[in-house]
Design brief:
With 296 residues, the protein is an alpha/beta fold. The chain has one domain: Spore Coat Polysaccharide Biosynthesis Protein SpsA, Chain A (Alpha-Beta Complex), CATH 3.90.550. Helix content is 33%, strand content 23%. Strands 5-4-1-6-11-8-12-10-9 form a nine-stranded mixed β-sheet. Strands 2-3 form a two-stranded antiparallel sheet. A hairpin with a 6-residue loop joins strand 9 and strand 10. The protein binds 1-O-phosphono-alpha-D-glucopyranose. The site of 1-O-phosphono-alpha-D-glucopyranose has 13 residues, from strand 11 and helix 9.
């Protein structure tokens, strides 16, 4: 089986949930502590062995291109002041020439359509998709867990976790043959099922390893949930064609950074995880609890 070396990052969304900030900043540039969401996604991809990064962008996303470019003036200024730690911090933002490619999605037709826009850059090999809104804190990065599991299973693989029943209508939901063990064989998938019709409470989280046949399925441009071309439907077509799809119940904590409360939670969690911030943040939080302010 061919190794997974390419990853698609759909970053064309308008980020309306974070207006007015996203009027001029792509939501993927919004920061958890001091690193943009997209940096977490790229680091996770690198840790999984990805060497080619494909961004599906739209108008107003040029800040993303600049972020991964060299910054000679900034570097020179930091160097002249001897700020080596800050220079090191910049290191992870650099990409080798040609390692990153941008394609435009000209109309917001859905996640499936966004991934389809990258088809010529993907070619005929398995590829990963990472949704930067889903930030996953894990000892072993989530995509790495998936790449390892996928090397045994082949087929398509999605990251999955259980969500409360009353939230299933916000996700792609899996129908699985057996809900035991960490890898589930998927019998069906439905995008944002109407409440009460969900086949399980196993939600798709924004990490995928897909076979190129999913791109062929997307050629049909079928409208799905919300009138959009859904990636979930194209993966479900694989199952209908008799091909294997697996759900990996990854180890780690997922934050929905597409929502304000998820973003705030992630900020606290990543802050507490930082040696330079932990003590101060811990004191602030415990003082907040002790003061009774949270009961008001
Ligand atoms: C997308 C996918 C959905 C998945 C979710 C995970 O939905 O379409 O299947 O469960 O991401 O975050 P969105 O959140 O873009 O509506």
């Amino acid at each position: 089986m061919k190794r997974v070396t390419k990853a698609v990052f759909p970053v064309a969304g308008l980020g309306t949930r974070f207006l007015p900030a996203t009027k001029s900043i792509p939501k993927e540039i919004m920061t958890l502590v001091d690193r943009p969401l997209i940096q977490y996604a790229i680091d996770e991809a690198r840790a999984a062995g990805i060497t080619e990064f494909i961004f599906v962008t739209s108008r107003g996303k040029s800040a993303l291109e600049d972020y991964f470019d060299m910054a000679p003036e900034l570097e020179a200024s930091l160097q002249s002041k001897g700020k080596t730690e800050l220079l090191d911090a910049l290191g992870s933002t650099y990409m080798d020439s040609g390692a990153i490619a941008y394609v435009r999605q000209h109309k917001p037709l859905g996640l499936g359509h966004a991934v389809w826009c990258a088809r010529r850059l993907i070619g005929d090999e398995p590829f990963a998709v990472i949704l930067p809104d889903d930030v996953i804190a894990a000892e072993r990065p989530c995509l790495k867990q998936m790449v390892e599991a996928h090397s045994e299973t082949g087929g398509c693989m999605v990251a999955t976790m259980e969500v409360p029943k009353d939230q299933t209508s916000s996700y792609g939901i899996l129908d699985v043959a057996q809900n035991g063990g960490s890898i589930a064989h998927v019998k069906g998938m439905v995008e944002k099922p109407a409440p009460g019709t969900e086949p399980s409470n196993l939600a798709v989280i924004g990490r995928y390893i897909l076979t190129p046949s999913v791109l062929d399925n997307l050629n049909s441009m079928k409208n799905g949930a919300g009138g959009e071309i859904q990636l979930t439907d194209a993966i479900a077509d694989e199952i209908a064609s008799g091909r294997d799809v697996f759900g990996l119940k990854f180890e780690g904590r997922r934050f929905d950074c597409g929502s304000k409360s998820g973003f705030l939670r992630a900020t606290v969690a990543f802050g507490l995880d930082r040696a330079d911030l932990k003590e101060d943040l811990k004191h602030y939080l415990s003082d907040l609890v002790a003061s009774g302010e949270l009961d008001a």
